[in-house]
Specification:
The chain is mainly alpha-helical. The two termini are 26 Å apart. The chain contains 48 helices and 25 strands. The strands form eleven sheets. Strands 3-7-6 form a three-stranded antiparallel sheet. Strands 16-23-22 form a three-stranded antiparallel sheet, with helices on one face. 45% of the residues are buried.
Length: 1311
């Protein structure tokens, strides 16, 4: 934080009759372009013949606006209050209520749903699922977790059991009919949908009185198709949507159901239904039906006939006999034909949707990995590389061997596990059996998931050549869950809607409503086509992961070969590839899983494509449009729109905001970011590959073998030298481990770039809890380091033009580091180095290597090559450039603070104001620090002043200045400065800590003086957050009116007030995103696994908020939410104006030719944002959101109480003052009660507590009257012990005089 002073710190339509149901189109309403077939049928209601091509449950499309309403736009949009998403504060873990259960699902309920899901899958254990379901229905009637898809899953399971369990067939059918009738009666607030009627129609079709296995109840009138048709029509459900539902997997079944529905419709006089179903046959033609099959190229496959003979006989027979030759389709061609079969299928189903056809080409990573590893292993054998000397050097060979062993081991262990669990009594619905979960996938996939996930985790979490056990187990279990859900998505073959075409403006009411309508309808359509699945808890993931990891550790081995020093003979042994151990981290014993050293070394050198999951890779098609909080991004991998970590509350806010349509522009922004096409810059890649293969240190690419000298061990007896050696050795080991980790990281980048050289890439995006957008692939993306950015360029190109040609030069100067000069000077800089630029482009490694001196060398090289091509083209302005050009904010956090506070002085330092030359806040702070050091040097106050004098470069203070606004602490600032001083190598190692601590204090003090407006706003935000985190809902105060103000809860005693402080800081961004800070006290749950006992956090078990973290993190999080809003406003407007757009937080990218347009958009959106009274809206939201919250006065003792009193608005001071005396009384009484109950507390501690209590009164508070202690059984009046939160909120700091509209003419605001 900024210091206060210088010294302080679904699927396809079903056909009618005999046509193939796969040939029917999807609703055109879901696509960006209308279907070309004018006679394509549409969904209909029972009341009118459909006239438009969208399902009956979709509202008619609005007429296109002829022009954007002048009264609407970004200014009008931002001037309105964003709609709040209101969720009750979660109750403590030992309290419950129906309202709390409605919003927050506990871990036991989540596990119960997971058990149901696993037991219903392939009817693994339907009786157990039924028992757990009955328990949930009795205990949580009307709970939203008991929704229609869950009931439909049981109806499908009962139908499947009736088909295969003939003895109990009637029982299963009775259960099915009873459950359906309860849905019709809405007994449990669950209503049937199209899938429900599809299942019941299938049940009637298979068990009606005319079948070989009739069921008596289905002969009743209300079970006949006519009655079901009347019911679904009454619910406004289209019959076609019923026939097209995902549960109907057979074209024959679909045709039979359609025929019965048509007959029933004829008897009931429903001509609309007949017309709707009759149109299907007209469009069911297959365009390739008459085209003959292509005979493929065949490869000759000699079959050895003479293996049983000795070599001499075999040679003679081979000379005299013609070998038998078999033909086979080559491996790659065979795979291609299989993929093209899917394309042909997709063409019949969706003739106008290339996107969905491309989707069908994607296969499971685990299937592909298995085939690839097997193929490469076979190739090694064919080439003679299967000998012992080479096998140990092949990572792929090892992984394939592990896979074969692990697959067999998993099969055996699952059978053993089933027998063990069957032997245990089933007397508890809450008992979670493991066998249903490890049976969801094949042993083949389980084996590959385990291997690939552990290989990918290597070196994470600060563990050298390994990973934390808890993280490894949860990650493997989560991967099993995600692959199972991916299979469910692929199984249903759901058609994926694309985002709608861009509107004239995203900020009109009509545009936002259209987006909401489209997403709601598309989401309903997709979710109705999906199979129901349940989320797994962390403990369940850990148990599943433990089962698989334990199996792997027992079977995975590597052969290591060495030479016996005594005999000189070569000795080989099989060693475990993974092993479990412990290490101590900050005094805590930490379980870790380590890789064998040779495996870790090969991972840094070998081809690692097989360790990459699709969720770690870019996409080949545009990402799936975000339809809801958990539906978008990757096609088959279920993704969340927000990166959540151990926080249930934020997930609940997110879900409800999505359901209420408050996040339409968030979803639209992410769709825009994900739709930007990219490609690999081949010229830069060739240079990177050449450097990489040399395995030597180059720029920030580390060498294959760490090349720094190891510290020399000192002689015995010199303790000071020994201590220095141990410190240096520790740093050496850390640097060597970092070298290895960095090498692995770059290996991923290079491999991914190589694999996608010929493709167009897309990066699906999601957000963090503050709204900042990130590409979802973690390895190679434009948000990565300089190397990642240098490897990427836009896939689309645009002619430079005169403006673009100039901006390309400015961009090159910026990348080189010459970015503090005027634009004209930057252009001149490039002109002066044209020869160096030419040499860098033509001879990047053999020439003068000018580009390597740049601040961002790989991006500089890419720009040199692009500028060189433009100059060589003969007409630079006509040159088609695909180079991204950046516009970066100047310490963007401080820019937002200066605009919020109207801080003229701060605005000048961060280029908000008009200036001839760009200001450099980092240089200015460095100068201020240097002056302070000179003063200390003159006074002789510090030995570090002499060490640091003249060495305070801009680079030393830049990171600290940049992150101060984002909440960096003194400790963090010291670490940042220490790293910079270490890189400069200007301070002795033993003096580094003290020098960096001294300098951090000077830097943070200088920032506090320079940005006084930001300091005041930070203080206001911090105080608001601190008060909110201490608040308690009024209803909780009333229900627990005998609370005690002790700090701990005594067993059987009154409720401790600290246990009720569950309120987190929540606010709404201008884009409608609810932000709930996730900082709560750590509450961990012990899970016994076969590997070790692990302690994991349980997001579903609420804990009290961490008030300190809530207060300190709020200012930076709030500023982050503002820069995220600015970015999204810019992205939306760029889409409207047709600009290619990408961003890295406060760095906005587009083509050089469109930089001028981008600059205008950036400034207009920033001005509109900061003219919308952001802080006033935040204050109003706090008072609305927390209107009925109360703060225990005992929580406001000491300086906090004085601050609350001093900062409260004048109208509320009287009430705050009147409450002070009661606060003091309550606090002292609580201390006295603690003393009486705790005899072990020392007298000295008593005196400290009493002294602190008596000295904490606000200065203007009158002296309290003589107190008499209240009897213990007498309850204090609630008003005496609590204050209304809204009464003690601090008043907003006064805004300065800076006019934010000046930014319009500030050419260096973003540059």
């Amino acid at each position: 934080m900024i210091p206060l002073t210088r010294r302080t710190t679904s699927r396809v339509f079903a056909p009618s009759f005999s046509c193939a149901r796969q040939r029917l189109p999807r609703p055109a309403r879901l696509y960006t372009t209308p279907t070309r077939r004018t006679d394509a049928p549409a969904f209909a209601t029972a009341h009118a013949v459909p006239k438009e091509t969208y399902p009956a449950y979709m509202p008619p499309q609005r007429q296109q606006e002829s022009a954007v309403n002048n009264d609407e736009g970004v200014d009008a949009f931002l001037s309105q209050h964003a709609p709040y998403t209101l969720i009750p504060t979660p109750l403590p873990a030992d309290r419950s209520s129906r309202l709390n259960d409605f919003y927050f699902t506990d871990s036991s309920t989540q596990d119960a749903l997971s058990v149901i899901d696993a037991c219903l899958h392939n009817t693994y254990d339907v009786p157990r699922a039924k028992a757990v379901f009955k328990h949930l229905r009795e205990g949580r009637k009307g709970d939203p977790i008991l929704h229609t898809p869950l009931y439909n899953a049981f109806l499908s399971a009962f139908l499947s059991m009736a088909e295969k369990d003939f003895e109990k067939r009637d029982d299963w059918l009775r259960d099915s009919w009873a459950l359906y009738e309860s849905m019709e009666r809405n007994d449990e607030h669950v209503k049937p949908n199209a899938g429900t009627y599809a299942i019941m129609l299938q049940t009637w079709l298979k068990f009606n009185s005319e079948t070989e296995t009739p069921f008596a109840n289905l002969s009743a009138t209300d079970a006949a198709p006519g009655d079901l048709l009347q019911r679904l029509v009454a619910r406004d459900i289209s019959p076609t949507s019923v026939i097209a539902d995902a549960v109907i997997t057979s074209a024959k079944t679909a045709s039979q159901i359609a025929e019965h529905i048509s007959r029933a419709a004829a008897q009931l006089g429903m001509t609309q239904v007949i017309t709707e179903l009759g149109k299907v046959e007209a469009i069911a033609a297959d365009p390739l039906a008459e085209v003959p099959e292509i005979i493929p190229v065949l490869a000759r496959k000699p079959v050895p006939l003479f293996e049983e003979f000795d070599p001499k006989e075999a040679t003679e027979l081979a000379r005299t006999h013609t070998p038998v030759v078999e033909s086979e389709i080559p491996f790659n061609l065979d795979n291609l034909r299989k993929h093209l079969a899917d394309v042909s299928y997709a063409r019949r189903v969706l003739p106008d949707d290339a996107f969905t056809r491309q989707k069908l080409l994607e296969a499971s990573v685990y299937d592909a990995a298995s085939k690839r590893m097997q193929r490469e292993s076979e190739k090694l054998e064919e080439l003679g590389l299967g000998n012992k000397n080479l096998q140990h050097e092949q990572l792929q060979k090892w992984m394939f061997d592990w896979h074969n062993k692990l697959k067999s081991r998993i099969e055996v262990e699952i059978e053993v596990l089933k027998k063990e669990e069957d032997a245990k009594p089933r007397n508890s619905e809450k008992y979670v059996r493991l066998s249903p979960f490890v049976s969801l996938l094949t042993p083949n996939k389980l084996s590959l998931i385990t291997i690939l996930e552990l290989m990918h985790l290597q070196g994470t979490g600060g563990i050298m050549e390994g990973m934390k056990t808890a993280r490894a187990l949860i990650t493997v279990g989560k991967a099993v869950e995600m692959e199972y859900k991916a299979e469910m998505l692929k199984k249903n073959n759901i058609t994926l809607p694309q985002a709608p075409a861009r509107p004239p403006s995203y900020f009109t009411k009509r545009a936002i409503n259209d987006l909401k309508d489209w997403r709601t309808n598309a989401q309903t359509y997709v979710e109705n086509s999906m199979s129901w699945t349940a989320d797994w808890s962390h403990s369940l993931c850990a148990r599943v992961g433990s089962f698989l990891v334990d199996c792997l550790m027992e079977v995975a081995t590597v052969r290591r070969t060495t030479v016996d020093k005594r005999t000189g003979e070569e000795v080989s042994e099989d060693h475990p590839a993974f092993y479990h151990s412990y290490e101590y981290n900050r005094g805590h014993k930490l379980g870790v899983i380590r890789l064998n050293t040779v495996v870790a070394e090969r991972l840094a050198k070998d081809d690692i494509r097989s360790t990459l999951h699709p969720r770690h890779l870019p996409m080949l098609v545009k990402p799936k449009a975000w339809l809801s909080h958990d539906n978008g991004g990757y096609i088959f991998n279920k993704s969340s729109v927000m990166r959540l970590k151990d926080t249930q509350e934020q997930a609940v806010y997110l879900r409800h905001a999505s359901e209420r349509g408050n996040m339409e522009l968030i979803f639209a922004s992410l769709d825009i970011l994900g739709s930007t096409p990219w490609k690999i810059n081949r010229s830069v890649f060739d240079v990177v590959l050449e450097v990489w293969n040399k395995q030597e240190r180059f720029l920030k690419i580390p060498p294959a073998n760490y090349d720094a000298p190891e510290p020399v061990r000192p002689e015995e007896g010199d303790q000071a030298a020994k201590a220095k050696y141990l410190s240096q050795m520790k740093d050496y080991q850390i640097d060597r481990a970092n070298n290895h980790s960095m090498r692995c990281s770059i290996n991923y980048k290079v491999e991914i770039a190589r694999a996608f050289l010929a493709d167009t890439l897309y990066f699906p995006h999601n957000i963090d809890f503050r709204g900042r957008a990130y590409p979802m692939p973690p390895h190679l993306s434009h948000i990565g380091d300089d190397l990642s950015r240098g490897l990427l360029s836009f896939a689309e190109s645009r002619p430079l033009g005169a403006s673009g040609f100039r901006w390309l030069k400015i961009h090159l100067a910026n990348l080189y580091g010459y970015d503090k000069a005027s634009f004209d000077e930057r252009v001149e800089f490039v002109h002066e180095h044209l020869d160096d630029i030419h040499d860098s482009a033509v001879n990047p490694l053999e020439g003068r290597r000018w580009w390597m001196s740049a601040d961002d060398p790989w991006q500089c090289l890419a720009c040199c090559i692009d500028l060189h091509k433009a100059l060589e083209s003969g007409d630079p302005e006509a040159y088609e450039s695909c180079q991204p050009v950046h516009q970066d904010g100047t310490c963007n956090g401080l820019q937002h603070y200066a605009a919020l506070g109207g801080d003229i002085k701060g605005a000048q330092q961060v280029n908000l104001d008009i200036a001839e030359r760009p200001s450099d806040v980092y240089t200015h702070v460095a100068t201020m620090v240097e002056e302070e050091i000179k003063k200390d040097l003159a006074d002789g106050k510090s030995k570090y002043a002499e060490m640091l004098s003249g060495k305070i470069a801009r680079k030393v203070v830049k990171q600290t200045v940049m992150t101060t606004v984002y909440g960096v602490t003194y400790v963090g600032a010291r670490a940042q400065i220490s790293k910079q001083l270490k890189d400069l190598n200007c301070i002795a190692h033993e003096d580094l800590w003290g020098a960096s601590a001294y300098l951090a204090q000077k830097v943070m003090g200088s920032i506090g003086d320079l940005f006084s407006g930001a300091r005041d706003i930070q203080l206001w935000l911090t105080e608001c957050a601190r008060l909110i985190s201490k608040a308690i809902p009024a209803e909780r105060v009333e229900s627990e009116n005998n609370m005690t103000f002790t700090r701990t809860q005594t067993k059987g005693g009154p409720r401790a007030v600290g246990k009720e402080q569950m309120t987190t800081v929540v606010w709404t961004t201008p884009m409608g995103l609810p932000v709930a800070q996730p900082y709560r006290k750590t509450k961990r749950k012990q899970v016994m696994t076969s590997v070790q006992s692990v302690y994991i956090s349980d997001p579903t078990s609420p804990a009290e908020v961490n008030a300190i973290k809530q207060a300190s993190a709020f200012p930076p999080n709030f500023i982050h939410s503002l820069d995220a809003t600015h970015m999204m406003l810019t992205a939306l407007e760029c889409r409207v104006q047709g600009l290619t757009f990408a961003s890295v937080h406060d760095s906005y990218w587009t083509h050089a030719a469109t930089i001028a347009k981008l600059n205008t958009i950036i400034r207009d959106s920033f001005i509109a944002l900061h003219e919308s009274n952001i802080l006033e809206k935040l204050e109003k939201e706090f008072k609305d959101r927390y209107a009925n919250y109360k703060v225990p006065l005992s929580s406001l003792r000491g300086k906090n109480l004085q601050d609350a009193y001093a900062l409260a608005s004048a109208a509320n001071r009287a009430r705050a003052t009147a409450a002070v005396t009661d606060a003091e009384t309550a606090h002292i009484e609580s201390v006295e009660e603690e003393l009486a109950e705790s005899e072990s507390e020392s007298d000295s501690e008593v005196e400290v507590e009493l002294e602190g209590a008596e000295s904490d009164a606000a200065p203007s508070t009158p002296a309290p009257k003589k107190r008499t202690r209240r009897p213990k059984n007498q309850k204090a009046d609630t008003d005496e012990r609590f204050a209304n939160l809204v009464d003690i909120f601090p008043k907003l700091p006064q805004k300065g005089d800076f006019d934010v509209k000046k930014i319009k003419n500030s050419q260096y605001f973003f540059s």
